[in-house]
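pipeline stage [seq->struct] | target=TonB-dependent receptor | organism=Epilithonimonas lactis | residues=737
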Amino acid sequence: MKAKILIAVIFFSGMISAQQTKTDSAKTKNIEEIKLSKKVFVKKSDRFVYDVANAPIAKGTNSFNLLQQTPMLSSTDGKVFKIMGKSSVVFYINGKRTLMDAEAITEMLKNTPSENIQKIEVVTVPGSEFQVEANEGVINIVMKKSKTNGYNGTLKMNNSQSFYNNPSSGIAFNARQDKWSFNSNFNMGTYREREKYTLTNGDSTFRNESVGTMDDPNKNYGGSINIDYEISKKQSLGFSYNVRYNKSFGSVLDMTNFENGQLANRTINQEDAQTRNHNFNLNYEIKTDTLGSKLTSNVSYLWFNRDKKSLGETFPLSNIGSYSAFQQAVPQIINNYAANIDYIKKFRNESTFAIGTSYNFTNTDSDTRQNDFDGTDFITNTNLSNHFIYKENIIGAYATYERKFSEKFSGKLGTRFEATISTGDVVGKSDIGFERNYNNLLPYATLNYAINDNHNITYSFSSRVRRPGFGQLNPSRTYFTPTNYIQNNPFMQASKNYNQEINYMYKNAFYANLSFNFAENAYSQLPLQGTMINNETGEETKFLRYIRTNYGNNKQLGLTLGMNKAWFSDIWTTNYSANFEYATISGGVTKDPTSQPIEGVTEILQPYTINVKTLNMFFQANNMVRLSAKKDWYLGVNYWLMPSREMEIGKLRTQQSLDLNIKKIMGNFTFLVEMNDILNSNIDDIRTTQANGSYNSVRSFKYGRELNINVTYNFGNQKLKKAREVKSANDAIKSRT
């Protein structure tokens, strides 16, 4: 966006004296108009910076919608963001990682006014100081700051209509008085969703098919409190508390099952689940000089508890099979204790040296119990009942050095060392357990060259470790039908990831990104088909397990071309991008490491082989049109398209979405009406075929067409500075809960 600043420069020549008053006149030079262009989207040494405070789209919306308009970012489900195809995103606020889980972050963004944001920083290859895994990218949201005493707040109400109607509301309050800063927020709402499933699997000799729906009611409550006290001009003390509660009672998965085209049975799985998450963090910061050097330290505690109980029943609809049922309880309790110390030293030659260390201890307790109905009563299934205890210690240390060698050339070097000690045991089952000790040295480098004002080029390299999520390690099952389920795997190992990128930017509006990512010993959720044979009767039961496991290597060569530009005096703002990715994925799985022998039963598995070489694409076009000269009416037209793509699990069919929105700003009120997925075409449809003729598919229709009505009211001093955001010591753990 270009800002026109009229500078009147008036020069008076000569001295006016009493004798010259009548004969001399002041000599005034002509007024000169100088047009200065504000750079809205720029490339820094290790990140892209989107200065949304000077962008017309940052008026009267929320932070989530603003991020959807940010170059290089995309969201295909309205919940999760990706950076140019990155597997996931880590959020930071004012350089400090957020303390909330994924759902709470989404609600926080949707309840934060966009006017509060100064700029958005997109880090495609994070440096050694960031606590990230694999090829995760970083989004750092920089809030506007002011030392004004006072208070402000935001009230927000939302109503969403898709298959069900879902209302929600939230309030945020900020206050500042001299050395004290305080902010808090509370959100609550209901979210009931429906999905329609079609599941198939088989080969040339048989075919299983299941069709049905899932209804999942959710009630969400969440909030946070942040308190910051400036002990002196150099020292600050901060405390933060985040809480999250989700209640999903009465979730029902209702599937009708066919065998070789014949109606077989009906499966109904009923589930009650609730999740509680509490996080405490204490932060201390001291500035050590006037250049910006500082020492920070954190101690944190995280408590996560997910309690899930379910009843699965199968009713015969023909002469095939009989009534069966099971009860399942899958609780998970996570306790994490963490601490870290970071020191940043700044020098007068515009260089920076940073060093830090961290420690994380996590204890996960998952006592899965499954009881099967034997015709009279429910009897404990000892094979599928597992009390799994996982303990993990991670010791980390990093060092980075950043230097601006000239106005054109800058660079940053760093390395991160991580030592991981972990143990996993199933109580009473000595054959299910492990102990792993491994160390990783993770180098990082970035070089930035500003050729001139219009051209900038950057090269970046990093390596990272990707560890399995705690829930993925718990050897429990999630059932679709009695013979079609997800199987977790405690024997999964961490993978090693190497990332390289070359970025080019032209006139702060057009960009190109060439990247190469290599994952060694990668893991995913893969389909494994097999047959269980009763040795006494000869009866065969076909099954399909989606097992989480390490499979092999994954290489991705990507090219992203994009543009972010305003036209016609900022009336029309565009954000277009196209992503091309050539992927080679190789490996497979030949066995289920969680399978335990059952007396009198023989299990035969069909190996699943991955040999993928594919070109994947993604296109996105975001448009914002100002409809009035008063800048109080706006129209948004957004569209994205993802053609069919090959993945480890199979081929995902084409997905697309057309979204429209219109907003009206009336003083402190903002009214926003959104229509998402107008074409009702955002459908998950994954199909897999193996060389031996076996196949399986999962089709999930989520009723994505949705009407949202939002009303936001801002009160108080909107320029008030928020409490200092601080980094929690257990940030790296939260994404794995």
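stage status: PASS
auto-comment: Residues 2-734 form a domain with the Maltoporin; Chain A fold (CATH 2.40.170.20). The CA atoms of residues 51 and 119 lie 4 Å apart.
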